[in-house]
Amino acid sequence: MKNLKSSLVIILAFFLIVTFCFPAWGAKTIKIGVIGPMQFVQGKGHWNGAVMAAEEINAKGGVKVGDKRMKIELVKADSNEFLSMTDATNAMELLMARHKVDFVVGGFRSEAVFAMQDIAMDYKKIFIGTGASHSKLCLRVAEDYDRYKYWFRGTPFNEKFLGKTAFIQLATVGAILKKSLNIPKVKVAVVAEKAMWVEGMIAAAKGFLPKMGMEVVGVWQPSQAATDVTAELSAIQRAEPHVIFTIFSASVGISFAKQAGELKIPAVLTGINVEAQKDGFWEATQGKGNYVTTMNTYARGVETNEFTKPFVDRYIKRFGEVPPYTADTYSAIVYTLVPAIEMTGTLDADRLVKVMEVREFKTPGGKVSYLKDKQGRPLHELKWGPGYLTSLGVQWQDGKLVGVWPNKWVAAKGAPEVTYKGIVPFKIPPWMIEKYK
Amino acid sequence: MILDIIITSLINGSTYALLAIGFSLIFGVARIVNIAHTAFFMVASYCIYMITRKLGYHPIVGMLVAIPLITLLGLICYKLFIDPIREHEAAVLISTIALAIAFQEIMLLIFTGDYLSVPALIQGYFTVFGAKVFYQQLITFIAALVILGALRLLLMKTKLGLAIRSTAQDREVANLMGMNESRVAMITMGISVALAGFTGAVVVPLTTVNPFMWLHPLIMMMAVVVLGGLGSIKGSFFAAYILGFAEAAVVFLIPMGAFLKGSVALSVMILVLLIRPEGLFGVAFEEER
Q1: Domain A29-156+306-382's class?
Q2: Distances from the Cα of A198 to the Cαs of A190, A287, A425, A432, in angstroms?
Q3: How far is B122 from chain A (nearest CA, A)?
């Protein structure tokens, strides 16, 4: 009896050791963690993009890793980063420690992604960010390459390029207003949610807009979760701007657009409004968000390159809506990770990083190339510009979200005009035309 | 600008007044700190959303259905989760927090975190002294005055009101006088939750419906109630407009600090409490009530 008991204990101990010490035994999948605020559209975009990528790759037999094929297994992690930083870091820890993922894609709030990035770097796992725009996320790569080299920006480009694009689109709108309504000097009200990523853009707006011949009539910063902004709108109305330059990524984008539209404020709303990128924006504002313009990555009917339309059409067919920019987890997997794995024949992060950081490749959103800083140090930062990534300007026109920029855009003196296929003319709100004509 | 601040104060203050009056009522009568009060407001908003947007009925129908439904829900929750532990105030506090979070998670599960909206009872706006005001905001302001008047009538002119005031003054003596204190508390809870539901009906077209919409109003409501004096309905009414004024002043005078409007309002509350700890209309602390 004693011998039987001892034998059982030894067998149990053996199986425990096998289970905990050799997790890779029998592993036939590449585990990719998808982390994001899964109860919100941004996280849903993360997950949907990744699901579409995994389904496509697995349907073709999986990823070729050396001489074998491995399927992709996705692990969903709800970061809940809108509400709790602790939840975000816990979610990343779970991906690393419990699920032992090979790669991670996702993240949205810069504040949360900084913390999640550190955890991924502790575990030396490649983390492709598909939501946060703070430039410091990539500066860390240059400043401490050995630690942060596993980080790559997937989307969007950083806040400096976001600002640059937003200002170019603002200048385009300003020129249209000047020409159509004979406005001698365009007045701009800057309205930005209170969040980390906007601070650089506010400072840039105050500096650049006067140089662009515009007047900044005020800066307002409502809370990112504000549901009633009528006080702010009353104050803005008093300043009589022609353009309201918005910098929103959270729910305040809906409240602001809805209430501004309801009050028929005679100004164009343009800039960044992440909520306005969604198909659900029209219903959420009950149609009051008409003529709201925002930066976006995708729009129905607009083709940045030959990959765009097939991706957007397949996404709409699969999920019933236009992909938000966070659905670029698709590109992160299909165009960034998988080709690098197949080229190197390994899942080893250090070897993959060496290949990934020098590649240039097309994605549905544009051509990806990674920048270096002035000292030549890799940043793993996305390159911006014609021929690379420029994003789109989209506008709500009578219930449809259409592409309005770039439309005969000349990036620099002597450069060719850029107009993507499917772009339509920008429309000024009729109540604004009524006031100024 | 001062006119804008006043008009905005009246509008913001009306929302807080509607919420705070209901909370003050249940606290004053039954000493129940109902943290789930604004969560009922959130559930009412979703109810109205379902009836108007999904079933296609007029917002009035949504209101008329939502208020009794939420009241019933409130009474059930009171019977199951609050009444058994009513003697232990800390336990009630924790229980209502748990209830609020449970409501939030249920709404999150059913509706996810998508931002939704409900049509206004009366669409459009009008201009007063150059400031644009939504008709819905006017309805909110009038509703706050009507509710206060109706509540005053109920408390001062009816037998039920007499019972409620007696119970609020001294529960034990009210019991000895033949008033069923437990039943009075339940009725008061019903009135309080009905007010939360009514607030949801009136305010929801002005806001975005989401599972977390109960959090900010909770903080402001607590600030209003503390500033006005715990248990004082009149105090809550005036405090709501004081804090509404503080918020409006911040937005107009410090545009870049608009996100601080809540913090400034709370700071005003703290300042007043430093001078008058019982609040503006509260009774000074007594050892035994």
Answers
A1: alpha beta
A2: 11, 27, 28, 28
A3: 12
| CA B243 to mean position of chain CA atoms | 14
The answer to whether A222 contacts B8, with C-beta atoms less than 8 Å apart, is: no
Is the pLDDT assigned to residue B79 strictly greater than 50? yes
> Is position B34 within any domain?
yes
> In this predicted structure, what is the pLDDT of residue B247?
85
B142-175: pLDDT as tens digits: 998 898 899 889 988 999 988 888 888 887 888 8
Candidate from A224, A254, A263 with C-beta closest to B125:
A263
Predicted confidence at residue A229, as pLDDT, reads 87
Between chains, do B132 and A255 touch, taking CB under 8 Å as contact?
A: no
Q: How wide is the angle at C-alpha A318 spanned by C-alphas A313 and A319, nearest 5°?
A: 100
Which of the residues B106, B117, B259, B263 would you substitute to probe the A interface, choosing the one with the greatest number of A C-beta atoms within 10 Å? B259
Q: Are A355 and A343 in contact (CB under 8 A)?
A: yes
Q: Count of A–B CB contacts within 8 Å?
A: 106
Name the closest residue on chain A to residue B111, using Cα atoms: A39
pLDDT at A15 over 90: no
Strands A187-192 and A293-296: unpaired
pLDDT number for residue B216: 84
Residue B233 within any structural domain of the chain: no
Rounded Cα–Cα distance for residues B128 and B4 (Å) = 9
Q: Which domain holds residue B206?
A: 2-7+20-213
Could you tell me which chain B residue has the CA closest to the CA of A189? B255
pLDDT at site B81: 92
The whole-model pTM stands at 0.84
Residues A397-403: what's their mean pLDDT? Answer: 95
Q: How many Å apart are CA A333 and CA A356, to the nearest integer?
A: 12
Q: Is A230 in Cβ contact with B119 (below 8 Å)?
A: no
Gap from B258 CA to chain A (nearest CA, Å):
5
CB < 8 Å to B208, chain A: 227, 251, 254-255, 258, 284
Q: What percent of chain A has pLDDT over 70?
A: 96
**Mean pLDDT (whole number) for A169-195:** 94
Could you give the number of structural domains in chain B? Answer: 1
Looking at this protein, which amino acid is placed at residue B106? I
Question: What gap in Å lies between CA A381 and CA B143, rounded to an integer?
Answer: 54
Second CATH level (architecture) for the domain A160-296+406-436:
3-Layer(aba) Sandwich (3.40)
pLDDT over 50 at B285, yes or no: no
Report the alpha-carbon distance of residue A327 to residue A49 in Å, rounded. Answer: 4
Is the pLDDT score of A88 beyond 60? yes
Domain with CATH 3.40.50.2300 in chain A: 29-156+306-382, 160-296+406-436
Would an 8 Å CB–CB cutoff place A40 in contact with chain B? yes
Chain B contact for A218 (CB, 8 A cutoff) = yes
* Chain B nearest C-alpha distance from A112 (Å): 18
- Residue of chain A nearest B116, judged by CA positions: A284
CB atoms B117 and A283 under 8 Å: yes
User: How far, in Å, CA of A201 to CA of A159, rounded?
Assistant: 7
- Choose the mutation target among A262, A275, A277, A281 for the interface with B, i.e. most B CBs under 10 Å: A262
Q: Which residues of B touch A232 (CB under 8 A)?
A: 251, 255, 258
Q: Work out the mean pLDDT of chain A and round it to a whole number.
A: 93
CA distances from A27 to A69, A72, A149, B95 (A): 12, 11, 26, 46
A213 Ramachandran zone, left/alpha/beta (phi>0; psi -120 to 50): left
ipTM for the predicted complex: 0.80
Which backbone phi and psi does A355 adopt, to 5 degrees?
-80, -45
